[in-house]
Design brief:
The complex is a heterodimer of chains A (about 625) and B (about 350).
Chain A (H helix, E strand, L loop, with lengths): L3 E6 L2 E6 L1 E9 L4 H14 L3 E7 L14 E9 L12 E4 L2 H7 L8 E5 L5 H7 L15 E5 L1 H9 L6 H5 L2 H12 L5 H10 L4 H23 L5 E3 L8 E7 H16 L3 E5 L6 H8 L6 E5 L3 H13 L3 E6 L1 H17 L3 E7 L16 H6 L8 E4 L5 H16 L2 E7 H5 L1 E5 L45 E3 L14 H17 L16 E8 L3 H13 L4 E6 L1 E3 L5 H5 L2 E8 L5 H9 L4 E4 L8 H13 L1
Parallel strand pairs in A: 2-9, 3-6, 6-7, 7-8, 11-12, 11-13, 13-14, 14-16, 15-16, 19-20, 19-22, 22-23
Antiparallel strand pairs in A: 1-2, 3-5, 4-5, 10-17, 15-21
Helix pairs in contact in A: 1-6, 2-3, 4-8, 6-8, 7-8, 9-10, 9-14, 11-12, 17-20
Chain B lengths: L28 H15 L6 E5 L14 E4 L5 H11 L4 E7 H7 L1 H10 L3 E7 L2 E2 L5 E2 L23 H7 L4 E6 L5 H11 L3 E7 L11 H4 L1 H7 E4 L6 E2 L5 E5 L6 E5 L18 H9 L7 E8 L5 H15 L5 H5 L5 E3 L1
Parallel strand pairs in B: 1-2, 1-3, 3-4, 4-8, 7-8, 9-13
Antiparallel strand pairs in B: 5-6, 7-13, 10-11, 11-12
Classes of the chains: A alpha/beta (about 625), B alpha/beta (about 350).
Chain lengths: ~625, ~350
């Protein structure tokens, strides 16, 4: 929380704060993510800027009450521009001892803890590894505490609705939500509406949950009246006027693909194989078949990329999505797409590795895999999204590049961007530029090897077109005829052509802009992907002290914008900040001979603003 | 759009590309490609709608020798690629060309699923019981004891039966042919083509360089009539030079036995009549191996069901009907919204 004053809001004295970080935590079966989602919606409706970070365990239902089964959802909201989910929570809602144990160390000094005392049984304390009850042993001194028997109060609130004991206890997340709603003066109506819609077929569940929200809210009012707790007010943020919604990265990338396909005038063939956290794209598109989408759950990652490539061969937009280990399996087929020069969209929702690694945690360690990770000289295009909503624009961009240049394109996003959400000014889909694909149909002097002299893209003639029957394949082809060729000079020529084709795309992408700050100065902080929020906020804070620091966030990873080298040379120092041991930095160093310094973190967690800020300040002092 | 005017009637030659065929002289593949070209001519298959898709191996060069559309892909993955092609354009007529290593080793998983899903395409497996293009290693269909560069002391692992595998995967059409049978092979191809769904055809194909004569036990001219049984739906299971041998169920057992008509009171009426819709019978026929039994050739099993791509597109069409003229702006606005002024 940065700054606070007291204000009267609708008859209640509330302490005004600029920004707040709230973390909901509980057992993975406690409905923590739903609670977070509802709080996000009402916060957005209240006009605050916000950013969220869901953090859930790999186990679907880990043994109840254990620390490794704790699921959390963090939201940062405020009356100023919010770029990150926040370094440390001001408020922690802990629905059981394990949730308290895992999260309490992150909490700001003097922060508020809301606990369900009903869950602090001897058994649960033992499961969480507490020898003594932390609510009683003084270990929470220094924090403010709202200790309520949420379980009991919830059961009391829903008792007239005819739920089983198990179903009734499940409503406790809504009780805690009601309490936090009261804390920040939130409107309960959107959640009431949502519950009525979601449980339309079982009104007793909808009504119970609504009763729980209301009971939690009433509990807050009571404690406020008794003077035990303070309520807060966060004023609306100054946000660009327009119509808004919240959007997750998964939704944004899925809708972006649909937009891109529409602008290219192509149906979509989407093929995927279940993998965390990429599967959600398959789920999303599977519900949108009316947009001319065929979705295919393949037998494995290899089949998925091959089916997508088959879809492109037949004249649709072939798309596949996975995470690092799955992308590794797709590698050979991506090489085939490069060799036969067909469009293909490959989405990598990166997660922490190597191997299975930490499937639900975020990392940016697949950049080298994307740019270099294939046998032979196999260049392709790599574009990275930087915020949840940015996935929308990036998805359109990859469709444009893939279809215009007849090449596979890798879209890099990650687990954080996929699951996090942010307010999004809804674009007008009709205002997005079209880039319609024109299949080759002219039979005169046809060869599949004929290419556009400027883009070097070969013509795209699809099966079903009379008179253009031809054969393609992974064997090297003659530059002139497209037939198999083992000729040495021809292979040199084809390899050069493949490289040139991708290099030339640098002429067709926007110049690199400075994300925040001036185009010259003492330190440039370079980033890509989901580190956007913490990097830009940290640079903002250091700049506020008058330092000449700029943030440059790269969307086009390969090829890079053609002005990037000269832009970097305007800075005395270059820091490359990324959630890996240093991958973008090696590319930057080798491309531009810049003595860049790395800021790296590989903990499965995003950068904290404070970490980046500290690194910038240290660099300025050196 | 320019449309090339096709000649009145396409001949087998018209289906051959201008590329020089590069299989070893005497390879069984030559006969198969000719049989395929004849098949397409007999069917007058539209050139532009016919697509050959292959993986890697000797057989996989096949598409280059056809004048239709063709895609030579990567090892083992032709079935997956073909599935994507068929989903994207169900009007295309797809032939997957593969070998025993391509289909049953590296691509075993994809073969399983293309058959299980019943994607409407013809899957032709050239089985020569060896890896030819990599110079003669034993394959998953090689008999125990096969000496090869990788098994100089003889292979020790059990071979896989391609047809039994296909039946086990839920294939709705399973047939067998022999490369040298230039007359009957096109008929098998035509049956496969006529079947809607995944049609699986195993062709015993002789590799003259690395595995010459491996099928002689039942394909050599002097033994063929006695060691092959050509099965035909609705007809008794008869074979032999004198057409006097047949198959019937052993009394009290689920097992076929060879009987001779005219001996021990056996008449033609006692013989099993081939029912290609009977999967148990197809399995028993597929299990027969030389020299104890004749090898079953022809359509062992044919029992059509709904195809994968038609079911997939039925869902797409239903969704389009339920949500006519979907609008992207409506989708983008489909969440709770608020206005900032």
């Amino acid at each position: 929380m940065e700054g606070s004053t007291a204000v009267a809001v609708e008859g209640t004295i509330r302490e005004e704060v600029e920004d707040v970080v709230v973390r909901f935590a509980g057992d993975s079966g406690d409905g923590v993510q739903i609670t977070g989602g509802q709080f996000t919606l009402t916060t957005a409706l209240a006009g605050n800027d916000l950013s969220t970070f869901p953090d859930f365990p790999a186990e679907i239902r880990a043994p109840q009450g254990t620390t490794f089964g704790v699921s959390a959802f963090q939201i940062h909201f405020g009356s100023r521009e919010i770029r990150t989910a926040g370094d440390a929570p001001d408020v922690l809602v802990a629905l059981n001892p394990a949730a308290l144990k895992v999260n309490v160390a992150d909490l700001n000094k003097g922060g508020l803890i809301i606990v369900d005392t009903g869950a602090f049984t001897d058994r649960n304390l033992k499961k969480a590894g507490y020898e003594k009850n932390p609510l009683e042993d003084g270990s929470l001194d220094g924090f403010r505490l709202i200790a309520a028997d949420i379980t009991k109060n919830t059961l009391e609130a829903v008792k007239d609705h005819g739920l089983s004991q198990k179903e009734a206890v499940r409503c406790k997340n809504m009780y805690s939500l009601g309490l936090v709603y009261w804390l920040y003066g939130r409107d309960r109506e959107p959640t009431t509406n949502w519950l009525n819609e979601k449980f339309g077929k079982r009104p007793e569940i909808a009504n119970s949950n609504i009763a729980a929200v209301n009971a939690g809210h009433a509990f807050g009012e009571t404690t406020e009246v008794s003077g035990e707790t303070t309520a807060y007010f966060v004023a609306p943020a100054a946000i660009e006027p327009g119509l808004y919604r919240t959007i997750t990265g998964i939704e944004a990338v899925s809708y972006g693909l649909i937009a891109g396909a529409q602008k290219a005038h192509l149906p979509i063939t989407f093929a995927g194989y279940p993998i965390t956290p990429a599967s959600a794209i398959l789920h999303t598109l599977s519900k949108l078949k009316q947009f001319d989408i065929v979705t295919f759950q393949a037998e494995d990652e290899i089949a998925a990329v091959c089916a997508a490539l088959g879809g492109s061969y037949a004249g649709t937009l072939g798309v596949t999505a996975s995470s690092g280990p799955g992308i590794a399996l797709k590698t050979e087929a991506i090489g085939l797409a490069i060799a036969v020069e067909l469009p293909l969209i490959v989405i990598n929702v990166q997660r922490a590795g190597p191997s299975t690694g930490l499937p639900t945690k975020t990392e940016q360690s697949d950049l080298h895999q994307a740019v270099f990770g294939r046998n032979a000289d196999s260049p392709l295009v790599v574009v990275a999204a930087s915020t949840p909503a940015d996935n929308f624009e990036v998805a359109i961009e990859v469709v444009r590049l893939a279809t215009k240049y007849m090449t596979p394109v890798m879209l890099m996003t990650d687990g954080y961007l996929a699951n996090a959400s942010e307010p999004w000014k809804i674009p007008d889909a009709d205002a997005i530029d079209e880039f319609p694909v024109e299949f080759h149909t002219d039979t005169k002097d046809f060869s599949p090897s004929h290419r556009d002299p400027e883009t070097l893209a070969r013509n795209w003639a699809i099966p079903g077109t009379p008179g253009l029957e031809h054969r393609i394949g992974g064997i090297e082809k003659s530059y002139d005829t497209g037939n198999i060729s083992y000729d040495a000079d021809n292979h040199q020529k084809m390899t050069d052509m493949r490289k040139n084709k991708i290099d030339r795309i640098a002429n067709d992408i926007p110049d690199q802009e400075v994300t925040r700050g001036d185009d010259k100065g003492d330190v440039a902080v370079i980033g890509w992907g989901s580190t956007f929020g913490p990097l830009t906020r940290a640079v903002q804070k250091v700049r506020a002290d008058g330092h000449k620091v700029s943030h440059i966030h790269i969307r086009h990873i390969w090829p890079m914008p053609k002005n990037l080298g000269s832009l970097l040379s305007n800075f005395k120092k270059v820091i490359v900040a990324e959630l890996n041991t240093g991958q973008l930095i090696t590319v930057i160093r080798s491309e531009y001979l810049v003595d860049a310094q790395g800021l790296n973190k590989i903990s499965g967690q995003p950068f904290k603003v404070s970490e980046v800020e500290q690194a910038i300040r240290e660099s300025l002092e050196k | 759009m320019n449309i090339a005017t096709p000649p009145e009637k396409l001949t087998a030659k018209d289906y051959a590309s201008d590329q020089e065929v590069r299989w070893c002289p005497g390879c069984g593949d030559y006969a198969i490609v000719r049989a395929m070209q004849k098949t397409l001519a007999d069917l007058q298959a539209p050139m532009e709608k016919t697509v050959f898709i292959s993986g890697i191996g000797c057989a996989a060069r096949f598409p280059y020798y056809m004048s239709t559309y063709g895609f030579h892909t990567i090892h083992g993955r032709a079935a997956s690629l073909a599935t994507g092609v068929k989903l994207a354009n169900p009007d295309l007529d797809i032939w997957v060309i593969s070998g025993d290593g391509d289909s049953l080793s590296i691509g075993g998983n994809h073969l399983m699923h293309v058959l299980r899903r019943n994607v409407d395409l013809q899957y032709i497996l050239f089985n020569n019981e060896i890896y030819g293009l990599t110079k003669g290693q034993y394959s998953p269909t090689s008999k125990i004891g096969t000496r090869s560069p990788s098994t100089p002391l003889g292979s020790v692992d059990s071979p896989l039966s391609a047809t039994l595998y296909a039946l086990g995967c839920g294939a709705r059409f399973v047939a067998r042919g022999i490369d040298s049978q230039v007359k009957s092979l096109p008929e098998v191809f035509k049956r496969a083509h006529a079947h809607r769904g995944a049609s699986f055809v195993e062709i015993f194909q002789n590799c003259i360089v690395y595995n010459d004569g491996v099928f002689d036990q039942f394909t050599a001219k002097n033994v063929a009539a006695d060691m092959q049984i050509v099965v035909e739906h609705g007809k008794p299971l008869i074979f032999g030079t004198d057409k006097d041998k047949g198959l019937r169920m052993k009394s009290g057992k689920i097992e076929l036995e060879i009987v001779t008509i005219g001996k021990n009171g056996v008449t033609e009426a006692d013989l099993m009549v081939h029912d290609e819709t009977n999967k148990i019978l197809a399995t028993l026929l597929a299990q027969m191996e030389a020299p104890a039994y004749p090898v079953a050739i022809g359509v062992l099993y044919c029992d059509p069901a709904e195809t994968y791509e038609s079911a997939v597109h039925a869902q797409v069409e239903a969704e389009k009907k339920a949500h006519p003229s979907p609008n992207l702006n409506d989708l983008l606005n489909s969440a709770p919204t608020w206005t900032v002024e």
